[in-house]
């Protein structure tokens, strides 16, 4: 039971962290709760499907189907995080004002609600499919039964609890700085996911490593430890990164940060003339 | 706004980089048996990229994972998958079965006499 609890908790943490931060970052956008829930539900269905068709997925592209699929959905999530952050950089100020005056709907077309859904979907689908396969491995390995079910539920509950805890913590940040903080969190998560995608593409033989283990900080902070794993999700911490991972990390930071700054500046200049 | 542009950028970067994906020599194989790895130590030459075929002999799914190598791939029951590893410097790189964490193994890269 304990083994199941630990594994399910570890997988749940990753999804919970991302969803908690997305929930924080989208604070004040009307309808976001429904879209996030839809993402979670679709992600759960997707996780089941990925686990069910794990065989076909693995056999695709002569044995590289899985890393290619992972890289694809990770890059989709990176794109969605980018869209969200760039949108927020021009609406964040108005949103912060309106969150303070509760009840007012945020104006402005093209709210990134689909982005929220896709990000949650990807987070749940990736971690969820591993949980399903893991539980299947335990069940068929003779370790099933109530211990496994209980372990799974407790592990999941702990993960959800951690997510709620982090979300509540985020809400304590003063409104003045709130979207700046969540913006940075989203930016770093996106860069970390892009680095993961790079590693999957390298694993599939599509990208060069550009040097393996550029440094080794595994003695300092083991990537398998709880802290290492949380930092892996939050800022893309990798104990022994390859060159291609760093390259993707840096490029993603720049590719999101620069348009964010441009949009913020444009909106700022715009806002001087007529206050929204 | 920059979503399509970003996608385009990443796609072209991928395409350009795929030219680098040179095919290495003969693939190595690693078996998963009773959730563990056979062999437990996989010798690898330094400085080359190798193709590794991982075959799962069990009726249970397994996950080949390594923090040292940044590799992570589910190996379905009775299935086989392919991963590329390297080029690596001399050293020992740990991998494990994420679905049965006491099962571990090492990629061992011997130092070449320089």
Characteristic key phrases:
heterodimer, A: 276 residues, 9 helices, B: Immunoglobulin-like, 4-stranded mixed β-sheet, 9 strands, 14% helix, 46% strand, globular
Topology readout:
The complex is a heterodimer of chains A (276) and B (114).
Chain A: H1 2-25, H2 32-52, H3 54-63, H4 65-100, H5 113-143, H6 146-171, H7 175-203, H8 226-235, H9 243-273
Chain B: H1 3-18, E1 28-33, E2 36-38, E3 41-44, E4 50-56, E5 62-66, E6 71-75, E7 80-85, E8 91-97, E9 100-109
Parallel strand pairs in B: 1-4, 3-9
Antiparallel strand pairs in B: 1-2, 4-7, 5-6, 5-8, 8-9
Explain how this protein is built:
The complex is a heterodimer of chains A (276) and B (114). The mean pLDDT of chain A is 90. By secondary structure, chain A is an all-alpha fold. Chain A has one domain (2-273). Chain A starts with a helix and ends with a helix. Chain A has helices at residues 2-25, 32-52, 54-63, 65-100, 113-143, 146-171, 175-203, 226-235, 243-273. Chain A is 79% helix and 0% strand. Chain B is mainly beta and 114 residues long. Chain B has one helix and nine strands; from the N terminus they run αβββββββββ. In chain B, the strands form two sheets. In chain B, strands 3-9-8-5-6 form a five-stranded mixed β-sheet, with no helix packed on it. Classes of the chains: A mainly alpha (276), B mainly beta (114).
> What is the number of beta strands of chain B?
9
Calculate the mean pLDDT score of chain A and round it. 90
The total count of strands of chain A amounts to: 0
Low-confidence stretches of chain B at least 5 residues in length (pLDDT < 50)? 17-24
Number of structural domains of chain B: 1
Strand content of chain B: over 45%
> What's the quaternary structure here?
heterodimer
| Sheet with the most strands, sense and barrel status of chain B | 5 strands, mixed
What is the H/E order of chain A?
A: HHHHHHHHH
What is the architecture of chain B at the second tier of CATH?
A: Sandwich
Portion of residues in beta strands of chain A equals under 5%
| First-to-last CA distance of chain A | 56 Å
Distance separating the two termini of chain B: 52 Å
Global geometry of chain A: globular
Tell me the radius of gyration of chain B: 17 Å
Helix % of chain B is 10-25%
Q: Sketch the topology of chain B as an H/E string, one letter per element.
A: HEEEEEEEEE
Largest sheet data of chain A: none
